[in-house]
Amino acid sequence: MKTVKLKKTAFNAMHHALGGKMVEFAGYEMPVQYKGVTHEHETVRNHVGVFDVSHMGEISIQGEGSLELIQKITANDASKLYPGKVQYSCMPNDIGGIVDDLLVYEISKNDYLLVVNASNIQKDLDWIKRHNSFGAEVINISDSISLLAVQGPESVNVLQKLTDINLKEMEYYTFTIGEVAHIPNALISATGYTGESGFEIYVENRYAAHLWDAIFEAGKGNGIEPIGLAARDTLRLEMGYCLYGNDINDYTSPLEAGLGWITKFTKDFIYSGFLRIQKEKGVPKKLVGFEIESKGIPRHGYEIWDHDNHIIGSVTSGTLSPTLKKGIGMGYVSIENTEPGSEIFINIRNKPVKATIVKTPFIKK
Question: Residue 115: left (phi > 0), alpha (psi -120 to 50), or beta?
């Protein structure tokens, strides 16, 4: 059997030096944890943590027709963007599901950056090029970019030591390009996947090691620590954020997934007619959050039952919440079972474990 060689980010040596437990993720060798999931989770909630998310994909769309292309392939309204603004969006496919969810950055007029999920880079690139009838230039620049997410209540205090950019004045989902830790043309974005205040910093690969060292030096008095993928998952789940491949995929409608707020019918986009009809008629199932009060940890793929042990859905994401100290999860259930406060049952090892549907996020920030 042929062994697939894993890709490595520019921070790979740092992860090994710090004792990171390395695993395969989206074709990369990535740290799943360092000192433990709960410890790392609480570090981000209470102090500041640093994530290597360089495996994420970056696709540049430039030139005349770039906005028209983005408007066609994404559900959100990119005409609302302006230079320095970021937008969360998704790319609907032609069967009612989702190609990927992504961030759209407007760098300047006719110059956009799309940040996509690591496992979908080639898939997304092929999809975008397939629908590029507008003459826009589409380039995959993923392999030239390193990306760190600095997240937690102390993040602004740490990073402010490294830049003259007034980070406290940056609004959520905005970005600027400037100097960070003497690195020119760094893109610093007030975004993240944890529910905490924080930033994501994009630099050329040649500056990666310097950026890592500068951030950890600046954070010495702020409780800074490296954070792995496992805590990234528990943090995002406590906020009810969707994970592609779990909570959304090629067969889940954005309306079923609760992403109606990024599905704008003020414009036409791929398969918008179907989704418009779906909105008018209503969806047959919906993504909900739930909590388990007793012992039991829900996991992806577990069946969701009603009082009569009828299957009404399945778990898409689940964990033991480090903050709430209870099992939490998300899953799709039939529309008549989606009311907050409703009792459902999670099939854990062939035993019905009672759970309650709740509104997300699970923790209020």
Answer: beta
> Which residues constitute the domain of residue 109?
57-142
- Cβ pair 156, 170 in contact under 8 A: no
203 pLDDT exceeds 70? yes
Among the candidates 142, 165, 180, a domain finishes at: 142
Q: Which residues pair with 85 in a beta bridge?
A: 174
pTM of the model: 0.97
Domain membership of residue 222 (yes or no) is: no
Gap between the Cα atoms of 336 and 311, Å rounded: 13
CATH code, domain carrying 126: 3.30.70.1400
* CATH assignment of the domain containing 336: 2.40.30.110
Model confidence pLDDT, tens digit, residues 306-321 = 999 999 999 999 999 9
Please report which helix (H) or strand (E) contains residue 98, including its range.
strand 98-108
pLDDT value for 365 = 77
Residue 201 lies in a domain: no
In a domain, 233, yes or no: no
> How is residue 4 annotated by DSSP?
P
Number of separate domains in the chain: 2
Q: Do the beta carbons of residue 42 and residue 152 sit within 8 Å?
A: no
Model confidence pLDDT, tens digit, residues 81-130: 999 999 999 999 999 999 999 999 999 999 999 999 999 999 999 999 99
SS3 (DSSP) at 273 = helix
Average pLDDT over residues 125-149: 98
CA dist., res. 287 & res. 255, Å (int): 9
Write the single-letter amino acid at 303.
E
